[in-house]
Design goal:
It is a single chain. This protein is an all-alpha fold. It has a domain of 58 residues. The protein is 56% helix and 0% strand. It has three helices and no strands. Helix 1 runs antiparallel to helix 2. The longest helix is centred in the middle third of the chain and has 35 residues. The chain is flat.
Length: 100
């Protein structure tokens, strides 16, 4: 997806619709993300090999893990929270009184 955006931004930069500094910032950010993905992939392979070594597995084949099925749940409405109600005025008076 970012590759498609890069082509679009490059065209807009060449026609002076988009500033060159903004395009270069986008390009550097995209390259940093690609580098991070590669580094994390290498870290995963290293951790997997370490786990195999520690558990006594001598097989060096890499297993492909299935993508987890994670579903995000909607947070309840804030009006349903116990903290959303107004505190009674006595609570404020107690907190500011010189009871100590």
């Amino acid at each position: 997806m970012l590759k498609k955006e890069e082509n679009l931004l490059k065209a807009l930069t060449e026609t002076n619709v988009y500033r060159q500094t903004d395009y270069l910032t986008f390009l550097v950010t995209r390259q940093q993300q690609e580098l991070s993905v590669k580094q994390l992939s290498i870290q995963l392979q290293n951790d997997y090999a370490t786990l195999n070594y520690l558990s006594g597995i001598v097989d060096t084949a890499q297993a492909v893990l299935a993508e987890p099925s994670v579903t995000l749940q909607q947070l309840p409405d804030i009006s349903q929270s116990v903290f959303s109600g107004n505190l009674p005025s006595t609570a404020f008076n107690w907190a500011t009184a010189d009871h100590w």
